[in-house]
Amino acid sequence: QQQVKQSPQSLIVQKGGISIINCAYENTAFDYFPWYQQFPGKGPALLIAIRPDVSEKKEGRFTISFNKSAKQFSLHIMDSQPGDSATYFCAASYSGNQFYFGTGTSLTVIP
Amino acid sequence: GAGVSQSPSNKVTEKGKDVELRCDPISGHTALYWYRQSLGQGLEFLIYFQGNSAPDKSGLPSDRFSAERTGGSVSTLTIQRTQQEDSAVYLCASSWRQGSGGYTFGSGTRLTVV
């Protein structure tokens, strides 16, 4: 059973555009929601994370929007760049237990 | 070390052989995790270690899989009698302690069973 559902599976965006990746979860005990970025041949790297007491967190061009009532959260990449082309994973965890990951989104930013 | 180190980076083995994958976490990190990444399947939790506590083995897919962590540092994931469906990238991650926020992942070991 997939604890965290992620969409879309792949995404193509023009340079300068906005990339949006969505995730949904069922377990209301989840209290930590990170996003990871993975380049080919590398392990995932923590990009940005949010806790459910806030609805939005912004770091540079990356923003997480969190909707607790809908049990959804999304990653927005503003002014997308070719260097942002990677696979992005959302995840969720609770009380320090193991992370549950989404299935990943392959982002391609076209110059 | 500066990051999580995994070895080997690539491993090709024959079906039925045993393999050992090694993870050297960041110095001082007490929590260590193993995940498996298959194409289109995201990251599948396998096992985690927290200090000297008994490991959480709930994600191990079969009794052919086992892991140990010696001295609270280096960990070895062992797969016995490998099968083709074991082919995947095996990722190790560590953190200061369980629940302390994001993990730091290694680059993984790509296992191919032929």
Description of the molecule:
The complex is a heterodimer of chains A (111) and B (114). Chain A is mainly β and 111 residues long. Chain A has a single domain, classed as Immunoglobulins (Immunoglobulin-like, Sandwich). In chain A, 0% of the residues lie in helices and 53% in strands. Chain A contains no helices and 11 strands. In chain A, the strands form 2 sheets. In chain A, strands 2, 4, 5, 9, 10 and 11 form a 6-stranded mixed β-sheet that branches. A 5-stranded antiparallel β-sheet of chain A has the order 1-3-8-7-6, with no helix packed on it. Chain A starts with a strand and ends with a strand. Chain B is globular. The mean pLDDT of chain B is 91. At the A-B interface, β5 and β10 of A face β5 and β9 of B.
Summarize the structure.
Chain A is built from no helices and 11 strands. By secondary structure, chain A is mostly beta strands.
Write the layout of secondary structure elements.
The complex is a heterodimer of chains A (about 110) and B (about 110).
Chain A: E1 4-7, E2 10-14, E3 19-25, E4 33-38, E5 45-50, E6 56-59, E7 62-67, E8 72-77, E9 86-92, E10 100-101, E11 105-110
Parallel strand pairs in A: 2-11
Antiparallel strand pairs in A: 1-3, 3-8, 4-5, 4-9, 6-7, 7-8, 9-10, 9-11
Chain B: E1 5-7, E2 10-13, E3 19-24, E4 31-37, E5 43-50, E6 65-69, E7 75-79, E8 88-95, E9 104-105, E10 109-113
Parallel strand pairs in B: 2-10
Antiparallel strand pairs in B: 1-3, 3-7, 4-5, 4-8, 6-7, 8-9, 8-10
